[in-house]
Amino acid sequence: MPQLETAADELRHELLLKFYRQYLEDREVVFAYAEANLQHTGFHFLISDGPTCFDTSDSPSFAFKRNDGLLQGIMPITPRILLGQGKCTDGTGV
User: Fold this and answer.
1) Between 22 and 67, whose confidence is greater?
2) Of 41, 45, 47, 66, which residue is 20 to 30 A from 12 by alpha carbon distance?
3) pTM over 0.90
């Protein structure tokens, strides 16, 4: 376990562990927050069928602001599959 410098750091660390355990057990604050947000999130998978592949790295995910002002999340899953994520605004859940 890493050495934490202050009591506040240790408490923060323990709270984060508690919330993470609750999330893994599908209960409490973090799970409810994630579940509520996923209802308003759209995911699209793009597959490369050409000679060019997506660049994967240790931290490949990023977000950018589109021309319409909305944020678009991008994450290459494999060199051939890209995940696009954004806010669902039309109320259909798609």
Assistant:
1) 67
2) 41
3) no
